[in-house]
Design a protein that fits this description.
By secondary structure, the chain is mainly α. It has helices at residues 2-23, 29-48, 65-71, 80-88, 97-119, 124-154, 163-173, 175-272, 274-289, 293-325. Helix 1 runs antiparallel to helix 2 (29-48), helix 2 (29-48) packs antiparallel against helix 3 (65-71) and helix 9 runs antiparallel to helix 10. The longest helix has 98 residues, at 175-272.
Length: 326
């Protein structure tokens, strides 16, 4: 298990590196699935050409199933399982329809099993354990039996062995391969799910930040608009204040002017009008008692002069009032 762990970590790092390169270059879903099919199929064919003999295990093993199992996590369209199964024929000694079906059925089962497990949203460790069991079923219930049937169809199986004996014989020879595939693909799946969760969280965070940024931008634009409206209102208020100030100054000036005129009018009424009026009243009183014609004539002349003086004062006051009204 120690050797399979080191080997597993190496394969995981290689697969992650290759997948990241491909994932960053293709965006179309169809092209993505096609790229994953070719990538993992080629890796499987290459690993299938490397035979490993493990001390304590019978026969030879290879790690060709690991890329095939990992490809299940990426391929979204199950129809590409057909292409993946065809590519696996490149690494077989006796390529045939039977060998094709051997992987096609096994991978199809794994694809549906993975998506059923994925929908349950299990914890990461439980997900890894579930996939280990799926890998065991992949080998024990599908790949090994179908491999035995394929050998029998191709006439390369041992005639003296029945199905049970052949099954245990093949199982013994692929025990290391099965354990390695289960461990590596499960570790990869757990890492894959963590990466997917982080990418989803990062995308959600980016969307949230983008929305918040947009909202802040809109709020900022709204504040700018409100600020402009406020500035316009302030300018309008300032203009109104300036006009009001001018109006108050003009009105104050006018009131002061009117007050000055009223004071002049009051002065004229108190002094300039009363003086000739008082003389006229005095002269009229004298006329009532004066019998001398010459004296009366003189009094009349003075009365006329006083009336003229009063008339001039009244005209002056009228002009003063007319000027004030204007």
């Amino acid at each position: 298990m120690g050797g399979s762990g080191v080997l597993g970590q190496t394969l995981i790092s290689l697969l992650v590196y290759l997948v990241e390169i491909k994932k960053n270059t293709l965006e179309n879903p169809f092209l993505k699935d096609l790229g994953y099919t070719i990538l993992f199929g080629a890796l499987s064919a290459m690993l299938g050409s490397v035979r490993i003999q493990i001390p304590g295990f019978e026969g030879y093993s290879d790690l060709r199933e690991i890329p095939l199992l990992v490809s299940i996590f990426y391929i979204r369209n199950p129809l590409f399982i057909t292409g993946l199964s065809l590519i696996t024929l490149l690494g077989t000694v006796h390529p045939s329809v039977a060998v094709f079906l051997e992987h096609f059925v096994s991978l199809f089962f794994s694809w549906f099993a993975y998506h059923a497990i994925e929908k349950r949203k299990m914890p990461n460790v439980l997900l890894g354990i579930s996939w280990m069991l799926t890998t065991v079923l992949y080998y024990g219930a599908f790949l090994i039996p179908l491999s035995i049937f394929a050998r029998q169809l191709l006439g390369i199986s041992t005639a003296t062995k029945n199905f049970i004996d052949s099954y245990w014989s093949v199982l013994s020879s692929v025990k290391f391969e099965m354990v390695a595939s289960a461990v590596v693909s499960s570790l990869y799946l757990m890492r894959f799910e963590v990466t997917q969760s982080l990418e989803t969280a990062n995308k959600n965070l980016e969307d949230t930040v983008r929305k918040r940024t947009q909202q802040l931008s809109e709020a900022n634009e709204e504040l700018k608009t409100l600020n402009q409206e406020l500035l316009a209102s302030n300018e309008e208020v300032a203009a109104l204040n300036e006009n009001l100030k001018t109006m108050v100054e003009e009105r104050t000036k006018k009131i002061n002017h009117q007050l000055t005129k009223l004071m002049e009018y009051s002065h004229m009424n108190s002094h300039e009008v009363r003086a000739p009026l008082a003389r006229m009243l005095g002269l009229l009183s004298l006329l009532k008692i004066e019998n001398n014609e010459e004296q009366r004539k003189e009094l009349n002349d003075r009365l006329y002069a006083a009336s003229q003086e009063l008339d001039d004062v009244i005209k002056k006051m009228n002009r003063l009032l007319e000027t004030d009204e204007r």
